[in-house]
Design goal:
With 125 residues, the chain is α/β, with parallel strands linked by helices. Helices cover 42% and strands 23% of the residues. The strands form two sheets. It has a five-stranded mixed beta sheet with strand order 1-2-4-6-7, with helices on both faces. Helix 1 packs parallel to helix 2.
Length: 125
């Protein structure tokens, strides 16, 4: 399903063939309402738009609370249950440190660039 009617508040979404790149646009997400909306937008990519190959570009994110990380874990699990896949890319040093401290760098597939993340889907095809 096409993403042309998808108008998220927290994501900038582009399609690269079958791969969707969702770029978080806010550097700080710390209000529960904002975090819930982010979760709805990320899950809509899977549930409403039937996307199963998603790159989550975190370049703009300066800090991620445990609630934000929880939403990303939820997206990862949702995709995994449907034989989809999530690749995170362009992590700031702070976000990388948070994931490392929580021992999640090994849990997620992490790429340095959007191009590298998209190529990972091509390599697995």
């Amino acid at each position: 399903m096409s993403l042309e009617n998808f108008n998220p508040s927290f994501l900038q979404v582009t399609e690269h063939g079958d791969v969707v790149v969702a770029r978080l646009t806010r550097p700080h997400l710390n209000d529960e309402e904002n975090i819930d909306q982010l979760g709805l937008e990320m899950f809509a990519l899977v549930d409403q738009y039937e996307k199963s190959q998603i790159v989550l570009d975190l370049e703009a994110v300066e800090y991620a609370t445990s609630s934000v990380i929880g939403k990303i874990i939820g997206l990862h699990r949702k995709l995994g249950r449907g034989e989809g896949r999530l690749v995170l890319c362009r992590l700031s040093e702070t976000v990388r440190d948070v994931l490392a401290t929580a021992k999640l760098l090994e849990y997620f597939d992490v790429a340095e660039s959007v191009a590298d993340a998209v190529r990972r889907f091509d390599a697995d095809a």
